[in-house]
Amino acid sequence: MRLSARAEGVALSITLALDARAKELAASGRDVVNMAVGEPDAPAPAVARAAAVARVESCDVRYTPAAGTPSLRRALAAHVTETRGRHHGPEQIVVCHSGKHALSGACTALFDPGDELLIPQPSWVSYVEIARVTGLVPVPTAGRPDCGPDLEALAAACTPRTRGVLINSPCNPSGYVWSRGELATLVELAERHDLWIVSDEIYRRLVYGERPFVSPVELGDAAAARTVIVDGASKTYAMTGYRIGFAAGPAAAIAGIARVHSQMTGSPNTVSQAAYEAVLAPEPPEVAHMVETYARRRTLLLDGLEALGLRTPVPHGAFYAFPDVSEHLGGAADSGEFCARLLEEQGLVLVPGAAFGAPAHVRLSYALDDERIRVALERLATFIGRA
């Protein structure tokens, strides 16, 4: 029996493929340093774990409303109001199974099949595939050498079929944070072409001082009226396995996402909702500690990459570095072969930039301990001949 063209057209994740090969090597006894996985290495905050256990032990683990429990929606509305500086009510929140679930729901509820979605590059590997799976036409647009958005290229890519733009700030893979001025230009473009702005803000809390995080909704009523925020617990609270997130935006858009989810997936996990609500207010102390830890590791990694002569755009946020390796490929044809050989020869896992729309680059995660970062830098130095 054949599969649908939709399923056949979905690209396999390069990060999962690399992770699988890394596990094979580790199982054979090789020491592998994995800098490919975009996952915090810290445990979830204690209050989240306690809330999850308490909900299980209460035996009150039943279906909730498809849009989430009323108490979590209220808590998230207060959280978004406080962190984005613009009032949001519970009716402007839909709880989702993850940030990715929120994003696919937004793509389904806001757009029709065949609509074009602009995606500034570099971008997270799943954006293009989510757009395709939901019937959209992804339109990657060129970025600048510092991995910031090329707003002229974004404007030039607009056609009568363009219905939205998907941004990610701080950005995976580069850590770039959009400035207020860049967002203002984006909002003007969206108003001119009547576009939705889907703003993936999953790394919002992980910024390091060079540039503050700004959400499009902070730019006024007109911006907020056409913006849907996607966020979740995975990165800020190290709750990746809890699979819980949300979308926030105009009430009609959120109701549309909730209708889609009510038929496709039903209510989010009851235990995870309780855990998420527990971390929202006050913020657990573990979060600030994680940010401080990432900041230290970022400095360690950036200093090491600079010593190797690798040009690396400054990551304002998230927990990735995205150096340009085009002058250090050696015998490799591209960054994909560079990463494959690096894994086999040095036991170091990086992600080739082609997966993110930037083939000259590779992505390194610094969500691992300082000593492993040092080992990774030593292996990278050996590989490119600078040991």
List keywords for this structure.
387 residues, alpha/beta, Aspartate Aminotransferase, domain 1, Aspartate Aminotransferase, domain 2, 2 domains, 7-stranded mixed sheet, 3-stranded antiparallel sheet, globular
Q: What does this entry show, briefly?
A:
The chain is α/β, with parallel strands linked by helices and about 375 residues long.
Q: How would you describe this structure to a colleague?
A:
The mean pLDDT is 96. This protein has two domains: 5-44 and 285-384, Aspartate Aminotransferase, domain 1 (Alpha-Beta Complex); 47-278, Type I PLP-dependent aspartate aminotransferase-like (Major domain) (Aspartate Aminotransferase, domain 2, 3-Layer(aba) Sandwich). The longest helix has 23 residues, at 285-307. The chain has 14 helices and twelve strands. Helices cover 43% and strands 12% of the residues. Strands 2-8-7-6-5-3-4 form a seven-stranded mixed β-sheet, with helices on both faces. It has a three-stranded antiparallel β-sheet with strand order 9-12-11. The protein has a two-stranded parallel ribbon with strand order 1-10. It starts with a helix and ends with a helix. Strand 5 (162-168), helix 8 (180-193) and strand 6 (196-200) form a beta-alpha-beta unit. With 387 residues, the chain is of the alpha/beta class. Pfam families: Aminotran_1_2. This is Aminotransferase. GO terms for molecular function: pyridoxal phosphate binding; transaminase activity.
